Amino acid sequence: xxxxxxxxxxxxxxxxxxxxxxxxxxxxxxxxxxxxxxxxxxxxxxxxxxxxxxxxxxxxxxxxxxxxxxxxxxxxxxxxxxxxxxxxxxxxxxxxxxxxxxxxxxxxxxxxxxxxxxxxxxxxxxxxxxxxxxxxxxxxxxxxxxxxxxxxxxxxxxxxxxxxxxxxxxxxxxxxxxxxxxxxxxxxxxxxxxxxxxxxxxxxxxxxxxxxxxxxxxxxxxxxxxxxxxxxxxxxxxxxxxxxxxxxxxxxxxxxxxxxxxxxxxxxxxxxxxxxxxxxxxxxxxxxxxxxxxxxxxxxxxxxxxxxxxxxxxxxxxxxxxxxxxxxxxxxxxxxxxxxxxxxxxxxxxxxxxxxxxxxxxxxxxxxxxxxxxxxxxxxxxxxxxxxxxxxxxxxxxxxxxxxxxxxxxxxxxxxxxxxxxxxxxxxxxxxxxxxxxxxxxxxxxxxxxxxxxxxxxxxxxxxxxxxxxxxxxxxxxxxxxxxxxxxxxxxxxxxxxxxxxxxxxxxxxxxxxxxxxxxxxx
Length: 523
What we know:
10 strands; alpha/beta; 5-stranded mixed beta sheet
């Protein structure tokens, strides 16, 4: 029961209230020399080792094992003596059995250092966090890369440090994890693991350089989801730039007469000094200051602890557009449908109406919020921090969502509102046509029409869409493959989400070795 299929002879058992000691002796055949592999013939001496074993009946278990030291009689061997190792029980320099070592390694993989140490104390095992982490041995990585390799980044700490995950797209298994996302790390891995014929990636330039350098014969496939994401960003930027067209159209439909001023002019609208608005101001100023000092995007990202995509957006986007986008991210709230009525009553009364009276009036009209929300809105009107609601203008994000959805899935009401937007602004209409045409190319794998789409977009599209088209032309082969082949990075994105789950389970404090071991073990 204690030593199944192990060449030892049980000689005695000693036990106390807490510890069980088993006395045994090795009795197997003479071993081979680890230096020259010659069979030993003469015994030099014997000595006793003490090995910690897995607990038994709630007690600590120690094995006092007597082993033999043998001579090596081969003159050419540098070893003169060596100690036998009992297969399945002991190994050199280790004071625990192989079975206990397996237990501790599993504890380390599942719980890590400190949590694993606490569990070991409950199980009557002697193992500190340093010892547990020292037992980690990641699974062996195949010598050759899979035929279809997926590459993507993931965050060890979002906005600061990133790694690279490599996935076998056909099998859906994680192949390896790299400690950073640089082109040098990926290029080194590809040189040591040849064999990739198709590599699915996102639009990161570092991965592109690594693939062209270390695997020039591999076919690169741009991820379709990221292509749609980049297109949606260009469409939203177009909608931001032409928001005045929508406002003008809405004012004309509501029959507003600019020459007839209201009874009371509301203060000039100012954005509220919320945390996200102030953070956007400071971040834009910091990025522009470093750009003016000729800093690179990567250097700015490291200095400000931001993602490179975020730095690029703050570098290339106007501050007013960033502030408008940040302001629209606030939730609408229960008062939003009643703001036109409140603003109208406020101007009619020259700002003298009380919040309690307006609260009672809108409560009769269906308002279910609190009185304090109404008072805050009136206070914001008086100081100019609330935007007067003149018409229902859809936000650029809403319009982008209507455009990017398949047209046959758009409800009739939203389709009607999108038509009104298209009538109000020809540039948004052109962006809508091009975006839907590109989505059709992507969904139906018509990559052979990509060049014609790029040509049309560069000829008469709004500037953000034409910029997106120029970006596609720089990576034409990979984008064409992404719009033609069935391969994509969907499996890789799923594995990245799995990494996030593992990080949350470990409170985000796992070292790279532990995180890599768990990712490869649980893939």
